[in-house]
Amino acid sequence: MTNSSKPERELNAPEHDYDGITFEVVEEEHTQEGQKVKRRGIYLWPNLITTAALLSGFYSIIASMNGEFTQAIYAIFLAALFDGLDGRVARAIGAQSAFGEQFDSLSDMLAFGVAPAILMYSWSLHDLGRIGLACCFVYTACAAFRLARFNVQIGVVDKRYFIGVASPLAAVMIISMVWVGRDFPNIFDLNEVGIQIVNAVIIVAVGLLMISNIKYYSFKSVDRKRVPFAVLPIAVFILAAMTYNIPVGILVISIIYALSGFVTTFLARKQSVS
Fold first, then answer.
1. CA-to-CA separations, 85 to 38, 54, 180, in angstroms, rounded
2. What is the model's pLDDT at position 15?
3. 127 plus 31 within the same structural domain
4. Which of 24, 70, 113, 188 could form a disulfide with 109 if both were Cys (CB 3.0 to 4.6 A apart)?
């Protein structure tokens, strides 16, 4: 009797029973019996990892503003690592929550929407003035649109695919291009207006890919499925090739992935028609 009446008491509790001082989070959850209960507090470990991703994005912005572009690149990569880790930790320990989803999106906005744009502007596009500023803003706005669309489509779209490039992958495309440009200054001469215009076009194009309806394979279905053994040697060879020049390797893989979406979309439409 006590266990069955507890959820009802929690659900019917006053909605404004706060003292006006204590900060607390109250979420509505569904129990295994299908009952709605209101719970206070947050799950520590997933949100702590998300906070680390947020810190990495913030540090990248500061590093870009100070001209420390290599540090800014590393920080965004670290944020991408944390972003891929927090969701897996939450699912592994059963700590998924609405607060965690919203916090993760806000962290992604800073780390993958704002930080790469500031990095590109500080590194290459500041000489273009307002045009460079506008191009970077387009990328940031597209990242916000992409994250908002993802939030409202949770549980609606096929989890095997991303609709549009995911914001962490878009950020990797931008920072890998900056990384390659810094390693090959003779090829990517930032004093040439042509190179600056190309960089401006690229950051706008990547932003538009985020809000497109192009399907990209999400690899989420691979996590717990067996794959042929031949996949492992192929992955080893790819990683070995990347060690020759890591920035170029990451950039090439990013470009291949960006182009793969067009093939995936074409095959999906062809399959739906047939």
1. 27, 13, 26
2. 52
3. no
4. 113
Domain hosting residue 18, numbered range? 11-40
* Residue 58: closest CA among 5, 10, 114: 114
108 and 231 belong to one structural domain: yes
* CA–CA distance, 24 with 13 (Å, rounded to integer): 15
Q: What is the pTM of this model?
A: 0.85
Helices (H), 153-274: 167-183, 193-210, 231-242, 246-273
If you ran DSSP here, which 8-state letter would residue 164 be given?
S
Max intra-chain CA distance, the chain? 77
Give the phi and the psi of residue 68 in degrees, each rounded to 5.
-95, 75
Claim to verify: residue 102 and residue 28 sit in the same structural domain: no
Residues 268 and 157 in one domain: yes
Choose between 177 and 3: higher pLDDT.
177
- Backbone torsions φ then ψ of 244, nearest 5 degrees: -60, -45
Summarize pLDDT for 66-86 with one digit per residue, the tens: 999 999 999 999 999 999 999
Which tens digit of pLDDT belongs to each residue from 99-149?
888 999 999 999 999 999 999 999 999 999 999 999 999 999 999 999 999
**pLDDT bracket for residue 13 (50, 70, 90):** very low
